[in-house]
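= Protein in question =
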Amino acid sequence: MNTFPLTSAINAHNADAAAQLHDYLEQNRQNPALIPVLNMDLTFISPHARSTNDFIISKVVHLHDNTYVLYYKINYFIFNLCQDMNIEDVYETTISFSVEHNYLAFTVINTHRDTVDEF
């Protein structure tokens, strides 16, 4: 579970709160504390895929109680001189989170691959 500070007040959990959270996350998408939460291992695309640390916040949807899901896009690039590759693309993904009193608690699944897993 990774957390990110919440500086705006969420009074009720509904579609209006989801819109408010969307705006809040959009304004903070380049915050150094949020970048590691939104970043993910992209080696399943290519061993050379790297995030640009630039995210597009698509939407926030209220699921139930204080739980939401964030739909977003990760801008990434693949550069491999040996294969004459210089690609820029976008990967769409989601992450769920809950709104606590003064922070957002993101459910981060550790998907970092290890070469040992390949044997």
